[in-house]
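Reopening: structure tokens for the zinc ion complex, inputs below.
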Amino acid sequence: MAKRVAIVGTGQTYHKSKRLDVNGVELIHEAVARALEDTELTRDDIDLVIIGNMDHFEGINYVDMWSIDGSGGFMKPTIKLTTGGTTGSTLAIAGYHMVASGLFNKALVIGWEKNSESDTTAAINTAFDPIWDRLTFAGAIGALAVEASAYMDDYGITERDAARVVVRDRKNACNNPYAHLRKEVTIEEVLSSPMLCDPVKLLDMCPRSDGACAVIFASEDVAEKITDTPVWIWGTANRHLYSYINDVNFHGLQSLKNASMELYQKCGIKEPLKEIDVIELYQPYSFGGLLWLESMGLCKEGEAPKLVWDGVTDMDGELPVNPSGGVIATNPIGATGLIRCAEVARQMMGKAGEHQVPNVKIAISTGFGGCMWSDILLYGKDKPY
Amino acid sequence: MSEKEMELLTKGSGEAEQPFRYSVGRWGSKFLIELRDHKKLLGIRCPKCQKVYVPPRQVCSPCFQRMEELVELSDKGTLMAFTIIRFSFIDPETGITRPVPYGYGFIKLDGCDNSFQHFINIEDESKVKIGARVQAVFSEERKGNLMDIKYFEMIDD
Ligand SMILES: [Zn+2]
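Re-run output (same inputs, fresh job):
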């Protein structure tokens, strides 16, 4: 029988477009030191290190070796994982799986990226098929813009609807000391920002950040000894679908739809909008903050703009989305999915400070990447059965 | 020197090149040779779910089934979704900044079940709409790669 698993502590770096004050290893160490401090554990207490990023952003291909000074992996089992944009959420799922196996008691999970070190879109292109995809492909921005074009055509969604999502997240980010972009924007500013790929404009899109995040997963045998506020993993699901971008059906995020349905069923969630208290959505662009809520079954297709305009997803709404400011404000890609997990944990532990949502009992974090792939995790304040 | 005043260095990777040569494979080669020699587009049909894919590949992923039956596709289709790329970035294939703007469309070729992604002609942006009929324009000189199609253009059909 699998062990129950909880998050017992988290640490993040301060995120910026360029952290020239630290190299990659030092950046990783900054997050790890904060996570250890948060749990009052030492490196000796850790019995597994799992680290991940996307190699092609830094061009360093053996990160588990290269990062060992900073990660604390010296003379410990160390595993490296990379799944594109979903890297951070895959890391969290792996931490859960490894500790649930009963073979490890305390896993230190680390995601990081130094996006300042290369051209992000060029690097993303190298993840796609050299014969069939790369000629026309323009990284995440191009692919997401194509998704947005289909969504607008299907339901009459407007650029103004999407801008409302940006306004929410950028406002929330002002209350998060770790966020990269901490300045409010208006709908008009979003709409008049430079067009990158129709209909996606500069302010609709996430930034590229330097940053790292570390999360400590512990088994039920030790979790409650480490913290009074363990954050229990109730379940996870993921869907990795296509390899060629040609094959993607852009009408709704199919991977997230399927993964969400599986997760709700596993965790006994019947009315997600009512039952979930917070979502940290891996939302690299504004339109995803609408369409993907529909894919998660929070409302009917085409109705997410109403949900967002009505304030349901605002800090004081029924279901706050991205209290941290989300990916639109902070995006060190290999860490991004794990930051969603860490932010949910901080909410549930009551450690979120200025962006704390009161009384969070059930929450979700997601990951997005690859060829329109999705990861999803559900957390509870109560120990699962 | 205090922390604030300290000079912080970076190191460039230099202009080094690391060229690759990728195998296109059996089915991909058939597609590109047919395109080069006869200006024809090929798809492949899954014997289990009957779906036709372009470009042809060995395995239908949902069925995990090997495919053998090549199907000739029309050079006409319908524009399912698109964008116009207006920001520039380094093209990892060439090492140079990719010229913008360019149209990037997902085209459902007649007789095919998935989409084909390629350049779309955006000279007259008012005609570029989801649902528009499009047709492939082939390059004069064809070399056995995807650039043997110049782009798809909007047609009245
Ligand atoms: Zn099939």
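The CA atoms of residues 3 and 45 of chain B lie 64 Å apart. Residues 10-155 of chain B form one domain. Marking as resolved unless the reporter disagrees.
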